[in-house]
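Lecture 7 notes: from sequence to structure.
We start with the chain below.
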Amino acid sequence: LSHRKQSKIQKAEDSLQKAESSSIQGVIVESASNIATVIKRGNRIYTNAVNGLATHNLKSLKKNKSQVENLTNEIDELKDHIFYFIKNLDEPSVSASNFYLNVLRHLQDMAQSLTYISNASYKHVNNNHKKLKFSQIKEL
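Predicted structure tokens for the same chain:
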């Protein structure tokens, strides 16, 4: 029960928020929150990928792959919500919508890079390639 409660709190903390604000300042604040969340989750995903690759832990790499997929899906949901976001802006503010689109584009790029890293790490371990040398792990 305690684990379930903690995982609910963690999930709520790590979820991305749809932009509901109608002012430019509100968009900036909400976008900053999403950026911080994606960077925090991205750091965790990258660290898990490197650790899983270093220890040849296939189970953690598989779990990491699903975490990247969840992050990508959440960013895609935000991107699907763009029309409603632009529709709800107070004035037809081009700068706010451009800012939000650029933020989502960069978040999507980060997610794609993490997906590539995670998939490559998983394939390497799954195909029973040689373990990495200490210098290679240190470089990663």
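Points to note: The two ends are 37 Å apart (CA to CA). The chain has one domain: 23-139.
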